[in-house]
Amino acid sequence: MSTTTAQRIVTAAGTANPGYRTLWRWHFYAGLFVMPFLVVLAITGTLYCFQPQIEPLLYPHRLIVEPQAAPRLTEDTLLGKARAAMPKDAVALTAAISSAPDRSMEFVFRLADGEKQSVYLNPYNGEVLGTLSVEHRLMQVDRMLHRKLLLGKPGELLMELAACWTLVMIGTGVALWWPREKTTARAALVPRFALRGRPLWKNLHAVMGIWLALGALAFVLSGLPWTGSWGKQFKALATAANLGAPPGSWGGLPLRSVLPAGLPIDAAATAGTTARADKTRAAPDEHAGHAAGMDSMPGMVMDDLPLPLTPWAVGNSPVPTSAEPHAVQPKPLPLGHVVAQLASLGVKDGYSIVLPTSPTGVYSVSYFPNDPKDERTLYIDQYSGAVLKDIRYGDYGAVSKAVSYGTSLHMGRYFGLANQLICAAISLGLAAMAVTGCVMWWKRRPQRSLGAPSRERTAPPMRGWKTGLVLLGMIFPLMGATLLAVWLADRTIFGRSARQPA
């Protein structure tokens, strides 16, 4: 089929179907905004998906050790060696527990300047293997690019908008290429490599879009609950409807342990801890509303843990406290005791323990395995070992359960390497969609013009699409505002452009 013939067929299809150009125009605007973000999301998401394979290649001397027949040192011995290797004013925050024979032991410390640093030790002989900055290691930078473009809150909102506008791009794209009249399903699903020039690019773009639409939709819907604006509101709404996190996981219950009787209370010590708590309340922090008064780890919430170790349902939970401070404190339970206790409770490997950093702190455990049904978050009194809270998958509401499965699939964790490869194929396919869309626009753009497709000669009603966009704008208010802005700009700034070839 010649290029001219193909162009006539496509043009005829567009003319014969009312609403075609309107859909194309909105698809154009959505794609124009989404394309650069889509490329960033695709590349960073693919890299993060393969984090378990990439990080050992990047930092082999820190993360990998030679398996030995000798018994491993206790967690407390390793923690002591880690503390000795760090500055005296460094505070141990987190222990990453893994039983893999070839992996090092990792502890996270907070330095005096607020920076967090991981220290790695050989679990067999206690040798310090090195340190890494938590904030500046490659996968953390990649994660922050994926979530916030390294721009903080503005970047987070931009990424959220890009995800929402991807929904418009998917919907209008599928509608544009959906088989109609004499077009067969085969023609819509199989690329026509005999075409040349722009028709070939358009065919490849459209066919790939049909194949990727379902995966792209799943990516967007599973990623939105983690966004900083809509995601937080969605989480709060789910909790209010008893469909999200269970009671207490958001700091609603005063979790306190009972200290042994007969211990004198020192007023000065109590006052000192109260002052620290007041300082925490006064410190500006994005989680201050949740963490007020929690001095076990000032400003620390479960969202500060590595993403793979933080169940969505408890993501904003403040780390709860143990008993009120006393001048004479009972000796806290050793870390090894807590690890053994967790093993008896069924949590044996691949989890993170937030260590108590004050007399009122507790051990906070975040377990986020590949199978969401095994997710658990536990809070353990640092003195008695009492389990103050044990949040399991069964305690989640329907929304939290769905989000947990969506997150595991989104990150390529649920069914191993196959899951990773499928996620990578979808991500890189979406990046290719962005590239082919850009090439198509470049080939058809007129000089000194945006090149948006022209409007219909007679605007069709398209009530269903208009209703859908209004509903989308109501569900995602930030997107609704930009939808209105684009519509106004389209009516007032760009005006009625001349009809462009399809």
UniProtKB/TrEMBL annotation:
InterPro entries given in the database record? PepSY, PepSY-ass_TM
Instruction: Name one matching Pfam family.
Output: PepSY_TM
Q: Where is the composition biased (Basic and acidic residues)?
A: 276-289
Which residues does the UniProt record annotate as the domain PepSY? 352-390
- Transmembrane feature ranges: 26-50, 157-178, 204-226, 421-442, 469-489
* Residue segments, region Disordered: 273-295
Keywords for this protein? Membrane, Transmembrane, Transmembrane helix
Record's superkingdom?
A: Bacteria
The cross-references to PANTHER family, in alphabetical order and at most eight, read: IRON-REGULATED INNER MEMBRANE PROTEIN-RELATED, PEPSY DOMAIN-CONTAINING PROTEIN
Name of the featured protein: Putative iron-regulated membrane protein
> Which organism's genome codes for this protein?
Paraburkholderia bryophila
